[in-house]
Amino acid sequence: MNSSISSSEPLAEVIALRPPSRTARIVIALAVALLAVEAVTRLKLIKMSKEFQQFTSYSPRAAALAQSPGVRIPIIGSSVVHEDVDPALFAARLGSLHDIKVHAENFSADHSYVNTWYYMLQRYFWRAGNDTDLVVVSFVGRSLYDKNEIEIGRLARFFTTVADWPEVLSTDLLSTFWASYAARDRMQELVFGRLFPNYKTYAYQQQTILLGHQLANPRRVRKQRSVVALERLLVAAERHGTRLAFVAFPTMRADWNEQSYDEARRLIEQHGMAYIDLRTTAFDAAGFDDDPVHMNGGGRTAFSRRLADAVAPVLRPGALAARADARGRPD
Fold this sequence. Notes:
The protein has helices spanning about 1-15, 20-50, 50-55, 60-65, 80-85, 85-100, 115-125, 150-160, 175, 180, 185-195, 200-215, 230-240, 255-260, 260-270, 295-310, 315-325; strands at about 70-75, 100-110, 135-140, 245-250, 275.
């Protein structure tokens, strides 16, 4: 028995010293590489992204807005909100029209659509208990309709919580744990922008060429468009007693300026929310930046005041009076 044990000891030592297989080495190397990318993304690249830093400020900003005196208005949408609206100018103009104190804050996400805006309202306002008096929802193009390409990773990481997971596809959960996956599109734009000075101009030109091909396609036929995500937002807003004002922003894109929003408008008005179309607002090319969607400083100033003029009739007189009595009139 002793000899049997002693004879097995060298075999055990040989097995213990055997190097890992080629497959095991590949798996280990991939794991190390993924962890390295994840670490660099969390510690370096996310801090380099102004948009991601902006997202982290939304919770405290929403809470501060809810505690502000007077009328409280978050302005939600894609990058057009960030580029085209000065919330201080908008609030000052709206306050002067109603002789009441108004506070407004921008909550934007680049290349976002109605799906993302629903989760932003859910996370930063409804679930957090941050009340508002009106939510301005900006939109351009197809952003109110279904079947848009959504950045699931960013949605899962920044705009949803565990309570939202039943509404998000199970495959989306991966990006909640992997920052590098959630950040992949923003990081690509950030890195390419640093390496190639004219990358953004090139990207805009490519989009213009692609758009030209789409518009020239004779098979483009006007079809009834799905508005399931929009209806979900409207139903949730009704349930929470939130007043919404949907505003179509002006751009230099003819296809966006000319398209019909019949399906969306009917649904919005059926739910008692406001629909405002500012696409006919007179802004020539001088009011826009290097691309046909975002405004420059001059356009932003003029449009912020124009937006306030359009939103002013939407505010409910009863709510305005209640806010004036509860919070006090402006100095």
